[in-house]
Amino acid sequence: MASQTFRSPDAAFGYWDLRPHEIVEPYDATPKTVPVAITGDPGGEVVFSSTHPGVVRVEDGSLHYGINPGAAIIIAEVVVDDAVVSRRYMQVDVCKTAQTFPTLVPQWQASGYVEQTPEGAWHFRYFDEWFDDQGGNIRVTGELSAVVDLDHNYTLVFEVWGQIENFLSHSNDTLEVLVNDEVQYRLNPDWDNYGDPSLPYTIGREVMRVPLSSYTGEHVTIRFVWDTQDELLQCFDGWFVDKLRLEPEGDR
Fold first, then answer.
1. Is the whole-model pTM more than 0.85?
2. Fold classification of 3-95 (topology level)
């Protein structure tokens, strides 16, 4: 640690202290100098050192800081007969102003069997113009996509709910989240159900979060891909996704 030594000009008190006690300033890359005052009588030589001299140091009775951001402690030690008999501390914090990042609401493009409801939710739907006697018709697919510039660590956040096939509910009627053609999450149950085919598998409304930090700094395409996988049991509500947004995770 860098150090600086000088004697107090004031010996009128039975105690001693440092002024200022603390400095907290935003970082602006401007060098600054602030005199250090010793009040009272330390009763010996005062030696100054810094935990981070690149952030702040004491020279010629003054603090020198501002070139580099960071935090450091100035330690003032009273030395008598080569022994430290007393200490005081001063904190200096040269803060970088936190950069704030907005929540992103991308422009989404729908294709295939995807449409927006009057309330604004995205509906991943079945073909519904005709059904056979077992509730089947044709296999359908659809996609909801957006291109975004991830200049920060973001998390994709959305609400999802719906009704899908109760038989093989993991493998059929799939809705997957992809980034640059890489599957991030399948919204279906984690395993296949073998329930009553005449009844839907109901997905209660919940908030989903898909971290995107591994793509920070990239221009990416986010896609919701819908595929019934077959033509059977197409008579349910399908999937609904709403309140799609990208929330910043915090400073990198």
1. no
2. Immunoglobulin-like (2.60.40)
